[in-house]
Write a structure and sequence with these properties.
The complex is a heterotrimer of chains A (405), B (116) and C (315).
Chain A: E1 4-8, H1 10-20, E2 25-28, H2 35-47, E3 53-56, H3 60-72, E4 77-81, H4 83-88, H5 90-98, E5 104-109, H6 123-127, E6 134-137, H7 141-158, E7 162-167, E8 176-180, H8 183-189, E9 207-208, E10 217-218, E11 224-225, H9 228-257, E12 265-268, E13 275-280, H10 282-296, E14 301-306, E15 308-310, H11 314-321, E16 326-331, H12 341-350, E17 358-363, H13 373-388, E18 397-398
Parallel strand pairs in A: 2-3, 2-4, 4-5, 5-7, 6-7, 13-14, 13-16, 16-17, 17-18
Antiparallel strand pairs in A: 1-8, 6-15, 10-11, 12-14
Helix pairs in contact in A: 1-2, 1-7, 3-5, 7-9, 8-9, 10-13
Chain B: E1 12-13, E2 19-22, E3 36-40, H1 46-50, H2 57-61, E4 67-68, E5 74-75, H3 85-89, E6 95-99
Chain C: H1 25-36, E1 41-46, H2 49-54, E2 59-60, E3 66-69, H3 74-87, E4 95-101, H4 102-107, H5 110-118, E5 124-129, H6 164-169, E6 175-180, H7 184-195, E7 201-206, H8 210-213, H9 220-230, E8 236-239, E9 242-245, H10 247-255, H11 262-266, H12 277-298
Parallel strand pairs in C: 1-3, 1-4, 4-5, 5-7, 6-7
Antiparallel strand pairs in C: 6-8, 8-9
Helix pairs in contact in C: 1-7, 3-5
Classes of the chains: A alpha/beta (405), B alpha+beta (116), C alpha/beta (315).
C-alpha cells in the first residue's frame, strides 16, 4: 500500500479522516481536549486543501444543529466535542438519530463536571449511549483515522449517525505513527452521499420532522403511516442491522486500504483464555500488556476489546466468552448508583447464555486517574482470588482510589 | 438496505422518518369549528357593485386562505373557522356573521329554542 | 411604496383546514411571506404555534419545504441548511427562512440567533411576536409587554419587553425590519425586499393572538392596527444601518397627530384587565420615549449608532 506514514496525535488523525472523507460542512466549537481537531480543519479550509463550509458556531448545541441542518439537505457533515460540550448538545444528540441523519461526530472522551476535570474518562460517551447513535471506540491513533472514515460509510448505509470515541489526552494529544491513506484509496471506499431520507425541494415540498401522533394515522392518500413507536422501531432495527454492517464495512476498508480493526470486537491472547479482560478504547491496549504479564505468571488471561459499544454486540460477546471462567470488565465510567456501564451490559448479555462466565467489574481512570498495566494485573489477580474463593458476585473494584488520603 | 419513503399508494407504509406532504384539511373539516358563518351580501359587496375584481380585502385578511378572490369573493365553508375577521374588516359592511343554527346545521340554537 | 392589496399574488401556499386558532394572526402573515418568496424557500420552524399550524404527521398544511427543529435551534438550523445548500451547489435554488415565535427568538433562541447574526449567515429570520409562549398555553416570555397577565404572571408582567430588533441592529446585519401581521402588504413588501439582500435579514412581526391576548377573533386585524396607532408597535426598516419609519407609523410621524392613548388599546384585551392607572401611565411613558426616539431617528437625528462594526465577507 502506498500510505504516507506520519507521526501525529489522535486529534490530527481525526482531522485527516474528515478531510479524506471529503466532509462538506464542518461545525466547530472548541473544548479541551478536542480543540486541535477543529483548529486543523480550520487551517485546511482556509488554505483550500479542504473545500468545506466551516461554521464556527457559538455553542455545541448549535454545532450539532448545524450538522442536522446541513445533513437534512444532503451534505456530508462533521463535528467533534467532549464532556460538557457533549452534554450541552444532548438534546440534539437525541434529535440526529431519531431524524435518521448520517452525521459523524468524534467524541474525545473526557470526564464530566462537576467537579471540573479536563482529563480522560469515558463518562461523556456513556451518558448518551441510549440515544441511538452507533458508538465505536478506538484504541490508537491509526484506528481513529480509519474508524472515522469507516464511520461515514456505516452512517450513510444505515442512515444512523456514528460517534467515534477516543480517549482524551491519552490518544488525542499523544503522538503515534499513523499511515495516512491516499485520497484515491478513500474515494474508492467511500462514495459521495447522495441519498438522504429527507427531500428539500421547492418543486416537491415536504414537511420534515413534524409532530408525530402516538397511533398510526392515514396520510392524504389514505395510506396508514406509522406513529412514533413505528418510527423508533425502524431506527432501532437499523442499529441492529449495524451489527452486520460494521464488520462488512471494516472488511471493505481492509480491501481498499489494507487495515482492519476487527469489526465489532477485537482480541488478544484470547485462545484458551480463562480470564478475559474487557474494555473499550486505549485501556484495551494497556490490557494487552497486562494479559502478557499474567500469562507469564501462568494465568491464562486474554483481552476482548469492545470496538462497537452501540449496537451492543451481544452474540459476538456470548460466542467469544462462552466457556471462560471470568470476564473482568474495566469501565472508565459509572452509572452512578449502580456500576460500570459496559459491565452491566455485558453481564446482562451473558444471562442465560450457555457457558457464560462470571462477570466482575472494575472502575478505573476517572478524571484521568493514572492506571498502569500492573494496576490492571493486580486487579485481575484480586478478582481471580475472589473467584477461586467461590464468589459469584462481587462489588465493583475501584482501581487506584485513595479515599484514605 | 432500507427502502426510501416511496410515493403514494394505499395500504400501510411505515416510514423511517416523519416527513409529510401538504394537503388541504390537515385538521379535518375545520368548518365544524365555527358557531357563526360569514355571508356576503352581493348587493353591498364593492366587487359585485363594480363588476370587477376590486377591494378583495376579505381575501387578504383571511388567516386560513378560505376566501378566493372573485366578483364577489367566494368563501370555502368546509374550512372557514368563522373567526369573523372578514366581516369586521369589510369596508362596505357587506359580510354578516350569521349563527350556524340559521343554516340548518343544528336543529336548535344556543338558547335551546328551535331554529326558525 | 406599499404594494396594493390587489397587486398581491393570488397563489396560495397556506392550505385551508390547518390547526391554527380561528383568527390567528400567523396565518394572515404566512400567506404573504410564502407568496413573497414564491414558495422557493425552505423554512426552519421550532416548537411553536407555527409547528402546529404546519400539521401533524403524515399531513402538512403549508405547501413549501419545511424543516421542524428543536426549540433553541432555529437560527442554527437555518445556518446549517444554508451551509449545506452552498456545499451541495444548491444555494441559488431557494431562500432559507427561519421563522420562530417571540420565546423561540428572544429567550431560548437568542444565542443561536446572535451567533448567526455575528457570522452574517445568509438567511431571513422572521420572528412572529405574539408576546408570550402561546403554544404551551400563554406563559410569559421576555417579549411579553408590561402589565400583561399570563399563566406565569397572574398579576401582570412587571418588566418591559426585550427589544430584539434593536439587539439585531447592534449586530450590524444588513437588514432589520419591524412589521405587523395586521398589515399583510407590509409583510409582503418587507419579505420581498429581504429576499434580494444577502446576509442575515431580521424581520420582527407583531402578531395579534385572540386566544392568548383575550379578545374576539374578529378583532385580530383591528387591534393590530390599533397597536400601531398607539406607538406600541412601530413599523420601520433599518437598511444598511439607515433607519426609516414605514407605512402607518411613517404617516403617524409625518402628520404629527396625537397617537391613540395606550389605555384605549389595553382596554381591548382581557390580558390587561386590572392594570392599575400607575402601571398604564408607566407603559404610556415607555411608549412615548420610544416613539420620540424612532421619530428622531427617522428625521436623521441619530442619538446612537447601533450599526456595530459592519460586515465584510471573505466568501
Amino acid at each position: 500500500m502506498s500510505d504516507q506514514v506520519s507521526v501525529m496525535t489522535g486529534n490530527e488523525a481525526a482531522a485527516n479522516a474528515a478531510r479524506l472523507a471529503r466532509v462538506q460542512v464542518i461545525a466547530a466549537y472548541p473544548i479541551t481536549p478536542q480543540s486541535p481537531v477543529v483548529e486543523q480543519l480550520a487551517a485546511w479550509v482556509e488554505s483550500g486543501e479542504l473545500p468545506a463550509e466551516f461554521v464556527a458556531v457559538e455553542s455545541e448545541h448549535s454545532a450539532m444543529t448545524v450538522c442536522i441542518g446541513a445533513s437534512t439537505v444532503g451534505a456530508r457533515t462533521f463535528t467533534a466535542t467532549s464532556s460538557n460540550g457533549l452534554a450541552y448538545m444532548t438534546e440534539q444528540v437525541w434529535w440526529a438519530p431519531g431524524a435518521r441523519l448520517p452525521i459523524v461526530m468524534c467524541v474525545v472522551n473526557r470526564a464530566m463536571a462537576a467537579p471540573w476535570n479536563v482529563l480522560n474518562d469515558q463518562q461523556d460517551s456513556m451518558s448518551v449511549r441510549d440515544a441511538g447513535w452507533v458508538q465505536l471506540f478506538c484504541r490508537d491513533n491509526q484506528e481513529i483515522l480509519d474508524t472515522t472514515v469507516q464511520a461515514y460509510r456505516i452512517a450513510e448505509r444505515l442512515h444512523v449517525p456514528v460517534m467515534v470515541c477516543y480517549d482524551g489526552f491519552l490518544l488525542s494529544h499523544t503522538m503515534m505513527p499513523v499511515a495516512v491513506p491516499t485520497p484515491e484509496q478513500i474515494d474508492a471506499f467511500l462514495p459521495p452521499f447522495t441519498e438522504p431520507f429527507t427531500v428539500v425541494d421547492p418543486g416537491d415540498p415536504h414537511n420534515i420532522g413534524p409532530v408525530v401522533m402516538a397511533e398510526p394515522r392515514a396520510d392524504e392518500t389514505g395510506a396508514t403511516r406509522g406513529g412514533y413507536m413505528e418510527i423508533r422501531a425502524l431506527h432501532h432495527r437499523a442499529l441492529l442491522d449495524a451489527l452486520a454492517i460494521i464488520p462488512e464495512t471494516d472488511a471493505e476498508y481492509a480491501s481498499a486500504v489494507g487495515r482492519s480493526w476487527g469489526g465489532l470486537t477485537w482480541e488478544h491472547l484470547l485462545d484458551a483464555a480463562e480470564v478475559v479482560l474487557v474494555a473499550a478504547g486505549s485501556l484495551g491496549t494497556q490490557l494487552t500488556v497486562t494479559a502478557e504479564q499474567l500469562r507469564s505468571e501462568g494465568i491464562k488471561a486474554g483481552v476482548l476489546g469492545i470496538r462497537a459499544y452501540r449496537p451492543f454486540p451481544v452474540e459476538a460477546l456470548r460466542d467469544k466468552l462462552a466457556g471462560r471462567r471470568l470476564a473482568l470488565v474495566f469501565d472508565k465510567a459509572l452509572s452512578y448508583g449502580y456500576e460500570g456501564p459496559i459491565c452491566s451490559d455485558l453481564r446482562g448479555a451473558m444471562l442465560g447464555s450457555d457457558g457464560a462466565p462470571a462477570v466482575f467489574g472494575a472502575v478505573c481512570g476517572l478524571g484521568g486517574r493514572d492506571v498502569s498495566p500492573e494496576d490492571l494485573a493486580e486487579a485481575a489477580r484480586r478478582a481471580l482470588t475472589d473467584l477461586d474463593a467461590g464468589a459469584r458476585t462481587r462489588e465493583t473494584d475501584w482501581i487506584n482510589l485513595h479515599l484514605e488520603g | 438496505m432500507h427502502a426510501r419513503m416511496s410515493a403514494r399508494g394505499s395500504g400501510s407504509q411505515m416510514s423511517e422518518i416523519s416527513m409529510s406532504r401538504p394537503a388541504v384539511g390537515e385538521a379535518g373539516r375545520t368548518g365544524d369549528w365555527r358557531n357563526n358563518r360569514p355571508v356576503i351580501d352581493a348587493a353591498k359587496c364593492l366587487a359585485v357593485k363594480q363588476g370587477k375584481v376590486t377591494c378583495q380585502i376579505c381575501w387578504v385578511y383571511c388567516p386560513d386562505g378560505c376566501i378566493a378572490q372573485g366578483v364577489g369573493p367566494v368563501i370555502d365553508l368546509t374550512y372557514c373557522k368563522g373567526c369573523g375577521i372578514c366581516a369586521e374588516e369589510c369596508p362596505a359592511g357587506a359580510i354578516e356573521m350569521q349563527p350556524e343554527s340559521l343554516h340548518g346545521v343544528c336543529a336548535v340554537d344556543e338558547t335551546g329554542e328551535a331554529a326558525r | 411604496m406599499t404594494t396594493k392589496i390587489l397587486d398581491l399574488p393570488v397563489a396560495s401556499y397556506v392550505l385551508p383546514g390547518n390547526r391554527s386558532c380561528a383568527g390567528c394572526g400567523i396565518g394572515i402573515a404566512l400567506r404573504q411571506i410564502t407568496a413573497a418568496l414564491e414558495g422557493r424557500m425552505v423554512m426552519t420552524v421550532p416548537a411553536s404555534c407555527l409547528t402546529v399550524l404546519g400539521g401533524m404527521f403524515p399531513i402538512a398544511s403549508v405547501n413549501v419545504p419545511w424543516v421542524n427543529v428543536a426549540f433553541p435551534s432555529t437560527a442554527a438550523a437555518a445556518s446549517g441548511i444554508a451551509a449545506g445548500l452552498r456545499a451541495t451547489g444548491r444555494a441559488g435554488e431557494m431562500t432559507v427562512l427561519a421563522m420562530a415565535g417571540d420565546g423561540g427568538t428572544g429567550d431560548i433562541g437568542i444565542q443561536a440567533l446572535s451567533g448567526a447574526a455575528e457570522r452574517n449567515e445568509d438567511f431571513i429570520y422572521l420572528c412572529y411576536d405574539n408576546e408570550a409562549y402561546m403554544n404551551t398555553g400563554t406563559q410569559r416570555s421576555g417579549l411579553t409587554p408590561a402589565g400583561a397577565r399570563t399563566t406565569t404572571t397572574w398579576a401582570g408582567k412587571r418588566e418591559n419587553p426585550k427589544d430584539i430588533p434593536r439587539i439585531m441592529e447592534a449586530h450590524g446585519i444588513p437588514y432589520v425590519a419591524s412589521t405587523s401581521a395586521a398589515f399583510p402588504a407590509d409583510v409582503y413588501d418587507k419579505v420581498s425586499k429581504a429576499r434580494g439582500i444577502t446576509g442575515l435579514r431580521y424581520i420582527h412581526m407583531n402578531t395579534p393572538c385572540p386566544s392568548g391576548w383575550g379578545f374576539d377573533p374578529k378583532d385580530t386585524v383591528r387591534l393590530g392596527k390599533l397597536a400601531v396607532d398607539t406607538g406600541l408597535v412601530v413599523l420601520y426598516e433599518v437598511e444598511g444601518g439607515v433607519f426609516r419609519l414605514t407605512g402607518r407609523s411613517a404617516s403617524l410621524a409625518k402628520t404629527g397627530k396625537p397617537r391613540v392613548p395606550v389605555a384605549d388599546y389595553l382596554a381591548t384585551q382581557t390580558r390587561f384587565r386590572g392594570m392599575k392607572p400607575e402601571a398604564i401611565a408607566a407603559v404610556q411613558a415607555w411608549v412615548d420615549e420610544r416613539w420620540e426616539r424612532f421619530v428622531a431617528r427617522d428625521a436623521g437625528v441619530c442619538d446612537q449608532d447601533l450599526r456595530g462594526a459592519g460586515h465584510h465577507q471573505l466568501r
